[in-house]
Design brief:
Blueprint: H1 2-15, E1 26-36, E2 41-51, E3 58-64, H2 75-82, E4 104-112, E5 115-116, E6 118-122, E7 125-134, E8 139-149, E9 158-159, E10 167-169, E11 175-176, E12 178-180, E13 183-185, E14 199-208, E15 212-215, E16 218-219, E17 226-233, E18 236-241, E19 248-258, E20 263-266, E21 270-275, E22 281-286, H3 291-294, H4 297-312, E23 319-324, E24 329-332, E25 335-338, H5 344-364, H6 372-390, H7 400-411, H8 429-451, H9 453-467, H10 474-479
Parallel strand pairs: 1-14, 22-23, 23-25
Antiparallel strand pairs: 1-2, 2-8, 3-7, 3-11, 4-5, 4-8, 6-7, 9-10, 10-20, 12-13, 14-19, 15-20, 16-19, 17-18, 18-21, 21-22, 24-25
Helix pairs in contact: 4-5, 4-6, 5-6, 6-8, 7-8, 8-9
Amino acid sequence: MKKVVIALLGPIMLISQPQPHYWQQHVDYTMHIQMDVKKHQFTGKQTLLYTNNSPDTLREVFYHLYFNAFQPGSMMDVRSQNLPDPDGRVKDRISKLKKDEVGYHKIVSLRQNGQALNYQVEQTVLKAFLQKPLAPGATDTFYMEFESQVPIQIRRSGRDNEEGIDYTMTQWYPKMAEYDDKGWHPDPYVAREYYAPFGRFAVNITLPSSYKVGGTGYLAQAENYWQKADTLSEGLWAMNYLPGATQERTWHFVADSVHDFAWAADEDYLRTMRRGPNNMELNFYYLEGYAETWEKLPRYTKVFFEEMNQRFGVYPYGQFSVIQGGDGGMEYPMCTMLKGTGKLNGLIGVTVHEGAHNWFYGVLASNETQYPWMDEGFTSFAEDEVINQMRKEPQANAHKRAYLNHNFLMSKEGEAEPLATPADYYARNRTYGINSYSRGQIFLAQLRYIMGAEAFNQGMLNYFEYWKFKHPAPHDFITV
């Protein structure tokens, strides 16, 4: 019987890899950002080399303008005020923003290969009409100048969060939307999830030299900004900041094979660093008042990366930064923004969850808007598996909480919705949360029970290896 099974599985393993017709778009951003920290505004110059690897001729392109969501009357504002269970961090806060507290992106100019483009802006989406169609296989240069204002921190992005972090710069720049075999995905921003093409980012950020910056990618000439100081514990270094010689300085970051770029800045950041698996850098940026727990966090973060590498695939980048900022916990390529408060166990839990996103959101990068369970559910499964392994006495069922949440939802008449519901279309936040996180997690837990642990574990490694940097859809995972 084993020979028969192997004979049947052979072709399945072959077709689980991307086929010759598979394609994806490619982006190459170069951005120069000048911050005015008194006005909380910045000017930007963006050069984008966009390669059309699709078989289609493109006659229009779409950009996301995320900061426009933080204005009274925006779709995010209206949706929040009309949900039966709005996010407590948002509620009606956007509707109360003053002129100097809103967020915005104002486009000064937009050109394709030097030719000015006509465009339309509808809240968080810009549609540009191309002067010359972009043929299959062609690469065009899009140049944009823009002016932006950083909103008061409400959801993920913004300035002056409740813990005192000056800038959490996430979803902060005009960003080309994804185009795939389903067409364009210019989804309006209503505080849910993301989907974008992979590529290269070279980001130059100029601001007062007293500010310290951490985020996605690698800092060029890092030795001019930081140097090792004291050893805080075994393997953990405190890093001394080297202020610039002038009032302003520019931070140069580069990241390859990522689909977004995030950063945070504060004058009072402390930074520690330790080595993780494969000699990667684990960086931690936090305020002094949180040092007691944040100095203990790196040891657990190293163990987390070791477990994830073994169970779900090897992390492909050379650094990861845990950064105090934002409004809770949120993942970005090569970093996470999270609040610093709470006990050590809670901080470890959030770090593990947001870190695990870097496998499913960051590297596999399924369309989270369409299939949120492929990111949140798989991440929650990995989180509970790893944390359970880190316990002195692992629990018999690491996913008990997910089953309890599922049972709770099933007890609420009329609230259950299909797992295939797109993220922005749920009638309730609670249903979205249980479906995407808990029921997506249960899908993997039950699949392992059916397949057996050995086959399941190898399947998860195969899935990561075949589909990293390629935006897998549900049928791609099922085929593996």
